[in-house]
Write a structure and sequence with these properties.
Layout: H1 3-28, E1 40-45, E2 48-51, H2 57-76, H3 94-115, H4 119-122, H5 126-139, H6 141-144, H7 168-177, E3 179-180, H8 192-205, H9 213-225, H10 229-232, H11 258-267, E4 272-273, H12 277-280, H13 282-295
Antiparallel strand pairs: 1-2, 3-4
Helix pairs in contact: 1-2, 3-13, 5-13, 7-13, 8-9, 8-11
Binding site for heme c 2: 183, 228, 231-232
Organism: Thiothrix lacustris
Main location: membrane
Length: 299
């Protein structure tokens, strides 16, 4: 922060505090011709009269105490531009660092113990599962839900349908490095009728009876001509190396209605799984992986 902005913040902050002090003093000052305490002021409305009853002294002193407190706080702690306060306190420095160091001494040995175990063994440990669930609720439930059932655009982690693979090491890689989906939009090279036919063909791959036979035949040709098989495969079963979903099952990440499938084909999809490796570290990711892996093993 530059010296100018630091000075500007100090000026505004202290100016407001002293303005509050002046306002309290000004409003409590007795004015010439003012009614005596307890007398009516002459203001009437709808049969009601206003009496001159100032605030209780204890209430007034609360304002003064608040002002004094604010000045003492700004002397001791950061709040005035670049001035760090006489205690030199920092939420990201002394206190945060001490708390993180204390937590590391307590919990790091536990995480390291589980990190040395195979993921499938950690998935069977009751204590590890409790820790993994708490981590999941803190870092993953916002997208995948507290029950890991997912939502539109967010995979269900309790089934055995995996975009990038459900083996322990594949799950760990997904959590560590994240994933970036890339379903390209086709509306610029396929007209509306073609997108309709493609949608009907995709529906037919999973055995949907409502797919129109004529449109399915045309859609199959477009599926090949537009390179859909490059990601989803000739048989439509997908490719976990690319995160291309299996189109032959009944699992639909964005929904299975005709309109939703058409929207996916026309506009593409670009879902993102954020990387957690730098934030959580390898040992915590190992434990979290075991919990996620266990969710699909219960069925």
């Amino acid at each position: 922060m530059s010296g100018f902005w630091s000075g500007w913040i100090i000026l505004i902050t202290l100016g407001n505090i002293f303005a509050c002090y002046w306002l309290v003093r000004w409003t409590t000052k007795k004015r010439p011709g003012e009614s005596a305490m307890g007398d009516v002021t002459g203001h009437k409305w709808d049969g009601l009269e206003e009496f001159n009853n100032p605030l209780p002294r204890w209430w007034l002193w609360l304002f003064y105490i608040t002002i004094v407190f604010s000045l003492v706080y700004l002397v001791l702690f950061p709040g005035l531009g670049t001035f760090k306060g006489v205690l030199n306190w920092s939420s990201q420095g002394s206190q945060y660092g001490a708390e993180m160091e204390s937590a590391a001494q307590t919990y790091d040995p536990i995480f390291k113990k589980y990190a040395a175990m195979p993921i499938d063994q950690v998935a069977q440990d009751e204590e590890a599962q409790g820790m993994g669930r708490r981590m999941f609720l803190s870092y993953c439930a916002q997208c995948h839900g507290s029950d890991a059932g997912g939502g539109k655009g967010f995979p269900n982690l309790t089934d055995n349908d995996w975009l990038y693979g459900g083996a322990p090491e594949q799950i760990k890689q997904t959590i560590m490095a994240g994933r970036q989906a890339a379903m390209p939009a086709h509306k610029e090279r396929v007209d509306a009728a073609g997108i309709e036919s493609l949608a009907h063909y995709v529906m037919s791959l999973s055995g949907r009876k409502e797919a129109d036979a004529a449109k399915v035949a045309q859609g199959q040709q477009l599926f090949t001509a537009n390179g859909c098989l490059a990601c989803h495969g000739v048989d439509g079963k997908g490719n976990q190396a690319m995160g291309a979903p299996n189109l032959t099952d009944s699992t639909w990440l964005y929904g299975s209605s005709l309109d939703t499938i058409k929207e996916s084909i026309a506009n593409g999809r670009n879902g993102q799984m954020p990387a957690q490796g730098d934030f959580l570290g390898a040992d915590k990711v190992h434990l979290l992986t075991a919990y996620v892996y266990s969710l699909s093993q219960k069925k």
